[in-house]
Amino acid sequence: MNYLSDIEIAQSCTMKPITQIAQTAGVDEDYLELYGKYKAKVDYRLLRESKRPDGKLILVTAINPTPAGEGKTTTTVGLADAMRRLGKNTLVALREPSLGPVFGVKGGAAGGGYAQVVPMEDINLHFTGDFHAIGAANNLLAAMLDNHIQQGNALGIDVKRICWKRCVDMNDRQLRNIVDGLGGRMQGVPREDGFDITVASEIMAVLCLASDIPDLKARLGRMVVGYTFDGKPVTAHDLKAEGAMAALLKDALKPNLVQTLEGTPAFIHGGPFANIAHGCNSVMATRMAMRLADYAVTEAGFGADLGAEKFLDIKCRLAGLTPSAVVVVATVRALKNHGGVPKAELNTENLEALERGLPNLLQHVENITQVFGLPCVVAINAFPTDTPAELQLVEERCRALGVRVALSEVWAKGGAGGEALAQEVIRLCEQPNHFQFAYDTAESIEEKLNDIARKIYHADGAVLTPAARKQARELEDLGFGGLPVCMAKTQYSFSDDATLLGAPKGFTITVRNLKVSAGAGFLVALTGDIMTMPGLPKVPAAEKIDVDEHGRITGLF
Fold it and tell me: Is 411 noted as a catalytic residue in this protein?
């Protein structure tokens, strides 16, 4: 059977003018800034001036990803469409895709099948220029830092302790480690340097956590770019850079409004990676969706051990948000993959492998309900190869934890295929809510790391390398010890070893590096071989992307 590709489905739909979508969302045209016919930005004044009470917040997360696919964004979009079909005033809030994965191995991030946000080509390619503005602000700060050193280094910055990198929104391993400033005294100060991908820039995290322009400037000013010869942190404020950076970001701070294939209003704004940053769309977009609708559906990147943990422990803590319900997305295929079945054999019923893989799902569910105290439903993203026996086994194991399972067919049927899930989510939103964090920020850095490792990953604990333990002491001495922790860890496993699938036991999490993101308001703990600049695969997705003489793009997925 031949299925249409995601881009073919998206290109076959008839989009509504964005002015009409804004009316559906309740956005007055006074707040609307048009970017063509089908995209717009919404001015942040709306949050200040609207008196409407906030709606309920629904988080969509997933099991640890596998090559078999989970469909978290697809489920998020389809759930919002389904809730609107049931007569509920619902908006969706998602992250913007990074060009790196679009041209690399992961592909686009606009949903899939008949549960997509459109125009998907624009969303996946440049969109409204937010990421370019973030890259420009990041590199302006890098240029001002090096210029300060070139012009006499009045602050006494130790070039061996500069921690601010340049960035580009592309997977480019060649730029991970470089030497710059070559060519003589007038060409700069030679030093080791490197690039991060734009979505790993602290400015991305700052933009996604900022509440308005004054807050944005304050956060930008607090960012640490390096240390002096006597160990004192040097900030962007010390370089007098935050005003110019905020000027570059003033429009990027405004959430982007688009639509789903079924005309549900969708905010798509910000895009920090979930394995090296906090992995959630902007606080401003989430708040705007909550302010305009009775239900706001959002997602957090990768599995619940990364995206959901950071959404709850960082974003909700810093923004004062409380979710009403959580959806954990899984596929039977992915669970069999966690149970040891190779990708080529996933279409065959295998209850034994499913049984071996189910602990991954059950551990995520238990974390949501027991550690964070939130109502939860499991959404099984349906594939044609799923058998009744496999689906029944998933339902039985989840029921033993007191959690219901809903079959989601939104990829094939759009909102109509998500009504069962939507009904359960609506029911959960009325259930008692005992939301709590996984750790107290008053704990020491090492205690917080151990709490996450033990409670969320079910590890024996966190082990700090000697260098990381020294960094923890220095950060506490500098007054940063009370910040929440953002774990940079592989997305494929509860552990820091990508090959340990399922729900491994008897392991520790090794923290090899700790740094402060003072503007974002959290500490970053790097584990395993996580890097802040990905590389392209042997066969990048870019090889299949093309555009014809009429401007019609093909190959995006």
Answer: yes
